[in-house]
């Protein structure tokens, strides 16, 4: 077996601190084994707040483009480094998604006087929250009166928090049931049949819980309405509908101005409208695949196999084929139920082929259960 580059050392996820120090991990400074996970979380939190406060108070006053970019690049690097201060695969992956991906993309857009952070320069708490968390504010379609605005805000906060709590409770139920089912003897004996659908439920419930919980403090503390992160992806009628309008919309809202529109604009004069659109779509899915590969590395701490990148690149080609088909023959007159079934079947089949194997190989469900038990033991020991 060929040796992997030293940039992707094979580490031991169960003893990450010692392994990182021994392997000279490229993103991490030496970490004291005495540093507890709560201490590490606090250090990551404070580093994030201080860094974003610097961007808000200092970098925002610099001229756009190169001066802002030069001042922001050290923070971009820091946000790639901070998640590796955390030993928990859950906290590490969440931090990588928030800081290394979403926040860094927002900061790079801000350097060029673009992106969602321009809306929050009036307030430091707003700027920090909307930069660090995978949320975006819902813009009003019309400007209501002051009384209407207060009434709508009060009603929204109560209805939003109530619905979110119910949905999080449902998501937690699905997550725990999925983890329990994955640990049963039947799932172990019939892995090809049982494990992929259970991982589908687990992935959706975990992602929904995390994104929904992240919106609660922002909505309630800052008094703003947050855009939903999902819009019933299980009723998608096409791949374009799924990826562009229903699934993980905060990622879509970040990749569109950061990758899609710049690539499409650069290719428009050279290639024409449709080819530029296709190239921009492929570039967006390639970047998404690479960022997902980074998240997979945070989960597995194993050399990359590029399966997740392949999954998203494949869907980039499938989506461009779908666009070309629509341009050639127009809308296909099929029953809506059949469109939904075909779309979900294609998503499931490609996920079973490329998306699920890496996490199944490392036994992600077993590691998640072990982390939960350890956290519960620590919590109970302090009560």
Can you tell me about this structure?
Helices cover 72% and strands 0% of the residues. The protein has helices at residues 16-23, 37-57, 66-81, 89-111, 124-132, 146-182, 185-189, 191-222, 239-246, 249-271, 273-300, 307-329, 336-361, 364-381. α2 (37-57) packs antiparallel against α3, α2 packs across α5 (124-132) and α6 packs antiparallel against α8. It is globular and about 60 Å long. Mean pLDDT is 80; it is low at 1-34 and 142-160.
Q: Count the helices. How many? A: 14
Largest sheet: none
Strand content: under 5%
Oligomer: single chain
Mean pLDDT rating: 80
What is the gyration radius calculated from CA atoms? 22 Å
The counted number of beta strands is 0
The assigned structural class equals: mainly alpha
* Model regions low in confidence, pLDDT < 50 over at least 5 residues: 1-34, 142-160
Tell me roughly what share of residues is in helical segments: over 70%
Estimate the global geometry from the Cα principal axes. globular
Distance between the termini: 49 Å
